[in-house]
Specification:
- This protein has no helices and eleven strands.
- With 102 residues, it is mostly beta strands.
- The protein has a single domain, classed as Rieske Iron-sulfur Protein.
- A hairpin with a 5-residue loop joins β7 and β8.
- The chain is globular.
- It binds FE2/S2 (inorganic) cluster.
- The site of FE2/S2 (inorganic) cluster (FES) has 11 residues, from loops.
- FE2/S2 (inorganic) cluster binds next to loops.
């Protein structure tokens, strides 16, 4: 059953910088963009590289292994070679704490 798991304090997230972490045995990347926080599986659907660390520009996260680009809002592939989207996770912010639903 899905549950919200604490991921980070809000002030631990640098704007537009992917932060990788392991939560409930899953690799998760979290990024703060403006007032919003997004989370997705930190495991490229092409050849399983980590997407984090890295910088997100215009909601697009690059995989540095072979250049795939993903939309952090949907996990969708913007540019291959990845062919499948990344799972995305719901995020809630309570006070200064960020939680990810896993
Ligand atoms: S592992 Fe990410 S593009 Fe190849």
């Amino acid at each position: 059953m899905a549950e919200f798991v604490r991921a980070a304090a809000l002030n631990e997230l640098e704007p537009n910088q992917l932060k990788g972490m392991k939560l409930n045995n899953r690799y998760v990347a979290v990024v703060k963009i403006g007032e919003e926080v997004f989370a997705f599986e930190d495991n490229c659907s092409h050849a399983a590289c980590s997407i984090s660390p890295g910088e997100v520009e215009d909601y697009i996260a690059p995989c540095y292994c072979h250049g795939a680009l993903f939309d952090v809002r949907t996990g969708g592939v913007v540019q291959g070679p990845a062919g499948r989207p990344l799972p995305v996770f719901a995020v809630k912010v309570e006070g200064d704490e960020v939680f990810v639903e896993l």
